[in-house]
Design goal:
CATH topology: Diphtheria Toxin, domain 1
Oligomer: single chain
Order of helices and strands: EHEHEEHEEEE
Number of helices: 3
Strand content: 15-25%
CATH class: Alpha Beta
Radius of gyration: 15 Å
Number of strands: 8
Shape: globular
Structural class: alpha+beta
CATH architecture: Alpha-Beta Complex
Helix content: 10-25%
Distance between the termini: 38 Å
């Protein structure tokens, strides 16, 4: 079983696993219009992944964390870092990485895409396809309040 984590603003708790946010905004592993859900392999990495996208004003926003359990029988496609485009860590995310995730989501061969983290490449993020038939096998634990240490904004 894979244990992964999702961190989101508390006001988005109800939609945290619909893929709607990523569909509207796009991300490293998806273009706008493609619904996916981003997770990290630790709560600390999930916090870092969120932190790089927020501003000082967000220090007052309520967040929640979700523990997500992906059973052994759920199909996972793992990306090989050595086979990614040389600019896969670029900001903003390059079209090549979005194309990789878009192709994965559209082919629907696996419910989960295991991708290296840009922030800590030795660790991994998981991208879920909410439209995949195996998505319903993924267990999401109830959300818990999460807050960033105020020192992170000093």
């Amino acid at each position: 079983m894979i244990v992964a984590w999702r961190l989101c603003k508390a006001r988005h708790t109800g939609a945290a696993f619909t893929g709607e946010g990523a569909r509207l905004a796009g991300g490293r592993w998806n273009s706008r219009g493609i619904s996916v859900v981003y997770l990290a392999d630790s709560l600390a990495l999930a916090a870092l992944e969120q932190f790089v996208h927020i501003r000082t004003a967000c220090s007052r926003i309520a967040f929640v964390s979700f523990r997500v359990e992906i059973p052994d029988g759920v199909a996972v496609t793992a990306l090989d870092t050595r086979k990614l485009p040389s600019n896969w860590r670029a900001e903003p995310p390059p079209g090549a990485t979005m194309a990789i995730g878009d192709r994965w989501a559209k082919e629907a061969a696996a419910a989960v895409l295991k991708a290296p983290s840009v922030i800590v490449p030795e660790e991994f993020n998981y991208v879920l396809n909410p439209l995949h038939p195996q998505f319903e096998k993924i267990r999401v634990r109830p959300p818990k309040p999460f807050s960033f240490d105020p020192r992170m904004w000093k």
